[in-house]
Amino acid sequence: MPGRKTIIATGEVYHLLNRGIASQPIFLNARDYQRASNTFFYYRNRILPLRYSYFLLQSLEKRREILENLNKKQDFLVAIIAFCFMPNHFHFLVRQNVDNGIANFLSKFSNSYTKYFNTKRKRRGPLLEGKFKAVRIETDEQLLHVSRYIHLNPYTSHLVKDVKDLKNYPYSSFPEYLNKVKVNFCFKDDVLGQFKNINSYKRFVYNQADYQRELQQIRHLILDT
């Protein structure tokens, strides 16, 4: 099997993508999206006391205690910069914090979510394509383009009809970027620090919405084919 084109290095930022086998849906309802989101945030942590499936078996008080302790440690395999879950794929923009952090993070996330999905649907076998795609972010300009690309995905794919409704799409980091959620998970400074304020970033995203529907013109900035 040929090796990965992109070398994953600690301290670098990457755009990651994986999709369902044969582009099949991997999220069928709101519960699936929520399970994926929760699993995603849980497995960014480097050292965990329990697998996520066992974590869910704990009392509410115990779960709160575990999450509070993890939040205090801030010891992450990856720093999440942006993300978006779509019906048959997902996009993550992350910085690798430790060696093999991205591979370990995606392996734990993918295995946990696949087990959940398969158990719920009484199916067997892999859910996602075997090798995730990864592109290293090399410039600040590329970082901004990729963050915008990720946040516009629901509009580009016609899940959201009006671009202004992106702020209400619950399965991406865009509402967090606009301060529309109470809990913050993302490291946004590398992106928002290049703008005067949050509204400037929002305009940056909205103003290129229709252009992004012709992604082939900028695809080389975003993801290897």
What does this structure look like?
The protein has 225 residues and is α+β, with helices and mostly antiparallel strands. It has one domain (13-222): Alpha-Beta Plaits (2-Layer Sandwich), CATH 3.30.70. 42% of the residues lie in helices and 12% in strands. The protein has 10 helices and 4 strands, in the order E-H-H-H-E-E-H-E-H-H-H-H-H-H. A hairpin with a 2-residue loop joins strand 2 (78-86) and strand 3. Helix 1 runs antiparallel to helix 4 (101-121). The model has no long low-confidence stretch (mean pLDDT 91).
**Unreliable stretches:** none
Largest sheet strand order = 2-3-1-4
CATH superfamily: Transposase IS200-like
Please tell me the total number of domains.
1
Strand content: 5-15%
Q: Give the quaternary arrangement of the chains.
A: single chain
The string of secondary-structure elements, in order, is EHHHEEHEHHHHHH
Give the number of DSSP strands: 4
Report the sheet with the most strands, covering strand number, pairing sense and barrel closure. 4 strands, antiparallel
Assign a percent range to the helix content.
Answer: 40-55%
Q: Kindly state the mean pLDDT as a whole number?
A: 91
Fill in the CATH topology: Alpha-Beta Plaits
Which key features would you list for this structure?
single chain; 225 residues; alpha+beta; Alpha-Beta Plaits; four-stranded antiparallel sheet; 10 helices; globular
